[in-house]
Amino acid sequence: MKTLEKTIRYRASAIDQLPETDRRLAERAQAACDGAWAPYSGFRVGAAALLDNGAVVAGNNQESEVFPAGLCAERVVIFSVLSQYSGRKILKMAIAAWHDGAFTDTPVTSCGICVQSLVDLEKRQGEPIAILFTGNRQTIAVERAADLLPFTFSLA
After folding, report:
1. pLDDT above 90 (res 76)
2. Rounded to an integer, what distance in angstroms lies between the CA atom of residue 2 and that of residue 63?
3. Which residues are marked as active site?
4. Does the reported pTM lie above 0.90?
5. How many domains does the chain have?
């Protein structure tokens, strides 16, 4: 039996240390939290995606009392892009969360379903999607969603 290891590379920084385009994308994700519907979890999550044509598409989580019928912010954005921007690619996505009356200090990462959806989209579009998880005090950046799920599901 072999012991193998997988590692990921990520960058951690304060939000004000990000390049301007990343900072603006993170701010759009924060602004998207305003429209979230989260009466059950109290977590309002916003996501914003930068497309290959320069457009930014934002979305937020929408909970439902018919659990688990709600949808996470990341998948709201993914499906909006796929339905409204056919043929466009997502280059980067920023995610922010609001809880207990303020943005979280440390980043909140995506759930497994959202990460798998992002990885599926990376395969579909043939290009990586960089991810920025943002908090008031720290931002974590990865170069591709697949780095977050090293043993991703695949039918092939």
Report:
1. yes
2. 44
3. 74
4. yes
5. 1
